[in-house]
Amino acid sequence: MRYGMFIGLISTLLVAGCNQQQGTVYRQPIEDARRILIATELSPAAFGALSYPVKARSDGASDIVWIVNRGSAEAFRFVASLRDAGKGATRVRVGIKGVTSGPLGNVEQRLAEHATIKKYLLTAMEEQVAAALERRSFNMARVYPAMGVATVANFGAIMAQFDRASEQHKRQSRANIEKAYRDEAAGKRY
Prior knowledge:
Elements: H1 2-22, E1 24-26, H2 30-38, H3 44-47, E2 56-59, E3 63-70, E4 73-86, E5 89-98, H4 107-113, H5 115-133, H6 144-153, H7 155-185
Antiparallel strand pairs: 1-5, 2-3, 3-4, 4-5
Helix pairs in contact: 5-6
């Protein structure tokens, strides 16, 4: 009995995982889905640290692309591939593709190395697409689990960034204090 439940659970998870690879079917004709997604902007709740505005553009007949920049440099692209699913429905599969060179380096490689961050970004974009095509508000609660996993998995790196920033701030503060003492001793007024 227990083994049967276990096998059933594993089968369900595998089927769910396979279906996600193929995309999600929405009850929208492909032309409507394309029009809606081209007008869709990224949610600041999930993508707030990235530069705005990020506008979608059509890339051929079946892909919608959102180019995400960090500063003035492209970091990565979300690509929503649209396929006719028959009977007025559209299958949408969301992917992410990082740049491989440029000012931000090899983002594609870093996404591969940090799979939980990649999963978080994909989950957020899948929710953005679902919200747009289902004509509802973006639901951050659907993204929180992936965000939590990414945060826990990368906690050491996050803390190291805070430590580096703190050390840099201490050095700069110390340099400012020493300069103020030198200027005061030299009789310099501000």
